[in-house]
């Protein structure tokens, strides 16, 4: 979708990080916004940062709740008249090993990261199909093509989001709806601070600090790259140099790279226990 001016965008996870930066930059491009999140204070903060010329609506929506997402889609069209772009961005993470994680924590991550995207896509599709051109942008991750240890539910959800995106691309080929599968590497946001942590595992503040140190891309840059992907109707969008490198390593050395990463995590866990 080359021209974003005047387009109506429905965006989840708009209260923080990549979502907030997407909202700001989409508003600067002339878009009208329907912003959703579970964090009402964060949403209000985002709205304060937007250009006032655009029409903006805010909605408290838990993306893991199918009824709420479908009701939101209807509300967006009632308030804005139509919708042109949907960005399923809301996401959460956890830090436990798969053999130790509770089903409650597993489902929390999976329901938001996977079902949130499925509901967000299916709820809006009938409305998107009515438009001359429309885009769905579903945020996966590098974890959508390479699983990192201590991220089991996130890896599973993000792989599933990638599969969903690829299926939608095949099935919607002859329609007006373009799908972009987005795969960011480390982006300096609140994702680790908002994660659920393993009991007796890494300290939250330490890990958040370590993540801020290694995450190579700012959320502003990530949003810019994602919007570039929308403008070019990209089917797949990597975000950050680390994502490009990991993508290459996975293709060149699928097992060798996985073994190396597994070894590095094992060493780190040993160090933590001593
Ligand atoms: N930060 C990274 O390194 C990174 C890397 C790859 C992919 N991603 C993905 O990018 C997306 C945005 O994450 P971020 O890094 O900006 O994190 P963030 O924690 O800064 O923002 C996530 C937002 O999602 C919202 N949210 C959480 N649960 C929700 C729910 N049930 N319903 C509605 N909103 C909910 C949060 O309130 C928050 O505003 C996520 O899908 C994440 O998995 C992030």
UniProtKB/TrEMBL annotation:
Alphabetized UniProt keyword annotations: Oxidoreductase
Molecular function GO terms recorded: oxidoreductase activity
GO annotations of cellular component type: membrane
InterPro entries: KR_dom, NAD(P)-bd_dom_sf, SDR_fam
Homology family: Belongs to the short-chain dehydrogenases/reductases (SDR) family.
PANTHER family: DEHYDROGENASE/REDUCTASE SDR FAMILY MEMBER 7B (PTHR44196), DEHYDROGENASE_REDUCTASE SDR FAMILY MEMBER 7B (PTHR44196:SF1)
Protein name: Probable short-chain dehydrogenase
Origin species: marine gamma proteobacterium HTCC2143
